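Retro notes (design track)

What went well: tokenization of the new backbones is finally stable.
What didn't: we kept losing track of which sequence belonged to which structure.
Fix going forward: every design gets posted as structure first, then sequence, in one message. First example under the new rule, 259 residues:
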């Protein structure tokens, strides 16, 4: 049975944007919101960062958005752990669960309808409490042995695409799933959108490819999916693990053309 991720009959969606670093994806979603004005079906009600070194405060000030700094490393350290983002030990998993519970309290306090992961690094099961959209730097339609192959954080999917000789990379937006164990199942959720393809040509520097991918794929597909969810256009069947009406962008770019 398909169900809307958000029903616009409830009014303008209140979204929380979660980030860890530069926040360029968050910025693009806010810029779309600002450009549409009152016609936008969503409103960013809070920007949350897990890393005090991020650009979240600057973005919040620029766009006059509420801001919450909730540094996960400080949280761990205050409970006697090191600052590594790890789920290797039982103690780390217990503290991560506590962190998630506190994070949920923050989002509930802003009456959040759904959350957007615009480069949010720590694994949390906030996905059990809220619908969470996650932008991913890999084509999650590419399968190997029947499973999504281009999974993982940062440049891991890009390296995988090069090693497979695919010739291009593209960003995906998925419904983030709860993790179990060490979090290997986070990238298994229904596919909500596929961004433009970036042909990386002779480039072998994964970080350079990732930087270009953000510009031509992340920055286009994430705002488009947030918009579609806000309009109530995307429906998900959780048993089938699939979405109806995902946003597919068939544009193509070459890395030599990206500045």
């Amino acid at each position: 049975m398909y169900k809307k991720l958000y029903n616009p009959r409830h009014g303008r969606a209140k979204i929380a944007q979660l980030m860890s670093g530069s926040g360029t994806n968050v910025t693009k979603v806010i810029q779309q919101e600002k450009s549409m004005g009152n016609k936008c079906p969503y409103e960013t009600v809070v920007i949350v960062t897990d890393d005090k070194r991020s650009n979240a405060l600057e973005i919040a000030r620029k766009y006059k958005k509420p801001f919450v700094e909730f540094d996960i490393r400080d949280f761990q350290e205050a409970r006697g752990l090191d600052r590594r983002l790890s789920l290797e030990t039982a103690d780390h998993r217990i503290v991560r669960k506590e962190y998630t519970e506190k994070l949920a309290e923050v989002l509930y306090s802003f009456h959040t309808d759904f959350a957007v992961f615009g480069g949010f690094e720590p694994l949390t099961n906030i996905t059990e409490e809220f619908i969470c959209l996650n932008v991913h730097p890999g084509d999650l339609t590419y399968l190997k042995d029947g499973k999504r192959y281009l999974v993982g954080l940062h440049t891991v999917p890009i390296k995988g695409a090069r090693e497979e000789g695919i010739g291009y990379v593209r960003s995906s937006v998925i419904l983030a799933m709860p993790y179990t164990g060490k979090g290997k199942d986070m990238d298994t959720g229904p596919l909500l959108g596929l961004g433009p393809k970036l042909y990386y040509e002779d480039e072998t520097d994964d970080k350079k490819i990732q930087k270009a991918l953000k510009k031509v794929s992340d920055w286009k597909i994430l705002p488009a999916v947030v918009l579609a969810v806000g309009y109530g256009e995307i429906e998900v069947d959780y048993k089938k693990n699939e979405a109806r009406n995902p946003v597919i962008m068939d544009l193509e770019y070459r890395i030599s053309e990206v500045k």
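Added context from the reviewer: The first strand starts at residue 3 and ends at 4.
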